[in-house]
Amino acid sequence: MTTSTATTRANLLSVPETFSDGDFGLWLRKFELCSTANGWKDDEMLKRLPTLLSGKAFVVFERLGDDKKEDFKVLIAAIKEAFGGDETSKHIAMMEFRRRARKPGEDIQVFAYGLETLLSRAIPNIGNDERDTLLKQQFIEGSSPALKRELLQRPSLKYEETVKIAQQLDLTPELSSPNTDHDVNLTRVQRENVSSSESTVVRQLKESVEVLTEKVNQLSASVNNISEVAAIRMENPRRGRACYNCGGFNHIANECRQPKRRNDRRRNDPGQRRNENYCFVCVVTSDISPVIVNIGIKPHNDTRETTKG
């Protein structure tokens, strides 16, 4: 029975999750509550605490001197100093406090507690009035735009009252969503973008119509010119090929109905006429001065020499 009772008690022990890095003060508060529930005194807490440290926290514990590991309160003070007691850690905590905003779907109480924890780390010994002022300012600033507008209309409320009113207003669907104003603004921007896009398309279409109109006008002018030229050609038809036999047009010698001119061999022999060309007969004198003495049509087989007389 004794063993069974001891096992049952061991199974009922309440312990927090292991701590590695982050808000040591918050984790320590949970550890103290678990210790009270388990009936642990300082000696037992001193032995239990190192077993719940990991990562950076365990390294910090290992680097502490033995004199700081013999007393629970001294050990807690040393770990607190390592996790936020220096000026750099306070400055970082204040920066996080100023950037802290309510996350989508985050409960109002959780958001408020997160601000309170960061501020206590940044300014451990802050006065109550200054604390309430800073918490109220950041709480309103970190809320959604719609909820922020509602809270700004109640400037006389204190911090705790502001949190309660915010929790009541958060039940309203229009104010609970942190993206409500963002969606409205996005819709307006989308409408403006669509309007701008439509204006651009209309302008491009107008420019295209103007270009097409100009091309149609040019094409019409070209068609008119072609029609005028065709009309002129119809009024003045070109003459056909000349007949070597009769001198007429629109037929050739082989198709000519006139009697053949047999006396003119060259006229009946197109090949003979093609072999004729224009010849320039020159006289070469002793003083190398060329003188053109005759220009005429000569057959290739009729060559003459002219000498100086």
TrEMBL record:
Signal peptide: none annotated. InterPro entries: Znf_CCHC, Znf_CCHC_sf. Gene3D superfamilies: Zinc finger, CCHC-type. GO terms for molecular function: nucleic acid binding; zinc ion binding. This is Transposon Ty3-G Gag-Pol poly.
